[in-house]
Write a structure and sequence with these properties.
By secondary structure, the protein is α+β, with helices and mostly antiparallel strands. It has a single domain (2-86), classed as Deoxyribonuclease I, Chain A, CATH 3.60.10.10. Helix content is 29%, strand content 21%. The chain is built from 2 helices and 4 strands; from the N terminus they run E-H-E-H-E-E. It has helices at residues 10-22, 50-61; strands at 2-5, 28-33, 65-66, 81-86. A 4-stranded mixed β-sheet has the order 1-2-4-3, with no helix packed on it. The termini are close together.
């Protein structure tokens, strides 16, 4: 299991995904406060910023399962906290 908190730093995004890639040989649950909004986990979302697209691309590329989808994780709505499972 790996957890992530988003410090609003593009380098942290890369480091997190690189670390997750290094764990591909294991079953993995990646959870975190990513602060990324994307239609992959928030159906009503129309646009995504590049860093949200990178996370979505990584999740799709690695065949991850989203454990929470379309359920707000922020007090004002929106899905910014995610749970990905890779097996």
């Amino acid at each position: 299991m790996a957890t992530y908190w988003h410090p609003d730093d593009a380098n942290a995004d890369s480091e997190t995904l690189d670390a997750a890639n290094s764990l591909q040989a294991y079953d993995l649950i990646l959870t975190g406060d990513f602060n990324k909004r994307h239609k992959l986990w928030e159906a009503k979302r129309r646009r995504a910023r590049p860093r949200a697209r990178r996370l979505a691309d990584w999740a799709t590329e690695h065949g991850s399962s989203l454990l929470v989808r379309n359920k707000p994780t922020h007090r004002r709505g929106g899905v910014i906290d995610n749970f990905f499972a890779l097996a």
